[in-house]
Design goal:
Length: 424
């Protein structure tokens, strides 16, 4: 048992997380060799209103996305019904929740016959889980075919996220079914086909399978350490093994917490750049996942399928920017200092035909066409497994800073290592 510089357990970075102990999480000048870490205060999540009692009719994703109108203030202001999640190690609340709740707020102010076809948002400030978020919707334009809404997510009077949503009235089915010849007035269509060389989700271990394997491996490691201690107490590998065991137990706790909190089940098809040829161009490297909701969507809102668009927007932000760490070894987690999302866009191609539910697997493919100027750009495509339909595409850009040797100092004394946690 040897002690290496890297963890033996894979930990996924997330947007808005300082992932290296050698990079300060504050935004102070880089001229100082040592930066004082801000004091970490405990999070006590809450919402503007008193959360309703536990619901037996809402799935986890429905509770996560639920918003409540505040008509006594304005018909176009909403707030989170349930406390929002602050992922361990993150700078603020999970961005995907803010995106999704902003979209739902915008949807509440438009004709129900319209469907969101695109959203574009900017992350301005990190959201604080201990304070409620209010969503202020401005009606920019309401047309016959297209409608535009702007949503500002606010805390304490400050805007933490801005989102623009565009809605379209669906093209009549009879028009789609017309011919495409000259003068026939049909609808031209094409799409990027779903990759065929992807193993089915049932052939890939689930997170529960991974947790069981880690637990088994840790038990074996613990037995080995005990045996070595009985036969040769001075064996130097015992100390290394104990450190690895402690790290493994922490990883297992984080993994179980993520499984409990994540409304979606993820099965990773392509682990990282290590699984791809070294000479394969970085922009061409693909990271793929199978994803589905852990529970079916049961509320009346889900019947209209509008909630499915928000659910897709929610998971689209999960470890999205971290794609750069998986395709480019120069930005791998051991070299990474800071990663923060700056903006996020989603293009919904399927409209009312979008379904994000427990009985439907979706194939997610991600890549990074470009990275430079301490920014990374990533793209994402989402196909429906049952028929190969391309239901959505996403883009995101974020700050990606490498380690530069500085040390973050904990006010309580010593150096504090801030490790990345899983985004979901």
């Amino acid at each position: 048992m040897t002690k290496g510089t890297q963890s033996g357990f894979d930990s996924e970075p997330l947007n808005g997380v300082t992932v290296s102990g050698n990079q300060p999480s504050s935004t102070k000048s880089h001229s100082n060799a040592t930066t004082t870490m801000p004091e970490t205060k405990p999070h006590h999540p809450r919402s503007t209103i008193k959360p309703p009692p536990p619901s037996t009719t809402l799935s986890l994703i429905e509770k996560t996305l639920h918003i409540t109108p505040l008509p006594e203030i304005s018909p176009n202001i909403f707030t989170n019904t349930y406390p929002l999640w602050h992922p361990p190690g993150a700078r603020g609340v999970y961005g995907g929740a803010v995106i999704a709740q902003s979209l739902i707020a915008a949807t509440r102010t438009v004709d129900p016959a319209l469907w969101a076809h695109s959203i574009h948002c900017y992350f301005v400030l990190a959201g604080n889980a201990s304070r409620p978020i209010t969503y202020h919707v401005e009606e920019i334009r309401s047309g016959r075919s297209f409608t535009t809404r702007e949503v500002k997510a606010k805390q304490g009077g400050q805007t933490i996220c801005m989102l623009i949503a565009s809605f379209q009235r669906p093209v009549p089915r009879e028009k789609k079914e017309r011919g495409h010849g000259e003068g026939e007035g049909g609808v031209a269509e094409h799409q990027l086909p779903m990759p065929k060389d992807v193993p089915p989700p049932d052939s890939i271990p689930s997170d529960l399978d991974k947790a069981a394997k880690v637990e088994k491996d840790l038990a074996a490691l613990e037995t080995l350490i005990r045996q070595k201690g009985e036969t040769n107490p001075s064996d130097p590998s015992i100390m290394d093994g104990e450190a690895l065991l402690a790290e493994g137990k922490q990883f297992l706790t984080r993994l179980r917490n993520r499984i409990e909190r994540d409304p979606f089940e993820w099965r990773k098809v392509t682990p990282s750049f290590r699984a791809q040829p070294a000479d394969f161009p970085i922009p061409s490297r693909k990271i793929r996942y199978w994803v589905r909701a852990r529970q079916p969507l049961l509320s009346p809102d889900a019947a209209s399928n509008q909630l499915h668009l928000a659910a897709l927007a929610y998971f689209s932000d999960g470890s999205f920017l971290a794609t750069v760490t998986r395709v480019n070894p120069e930005s791998s987690t051991k070299n990474l200092g800071m990663m923060v999302s700056l903006d996020h866009s989603v293009y919904f191609h399927a409209g009312a035909d979008t379904k994000v539910d427990g009985d439907e697997w979706l194939l997610v493919e991600r890549d990074s066409p470009w990275m430079g100027e301490e920014r990374g750009f990533v793209t994402q495509r989402v196909w429906r497994a049952s028929d190969g339909k391309l239901v959505a595409e996403c883009t995101q850009e974020g700050l990606v800073r490498l380690r530069d040797g500085r040390v973050a100092v904990d006010p309580n004394g010593g150096e504090r290592s801030v490790k990345a946690e899983s985004k979901l």
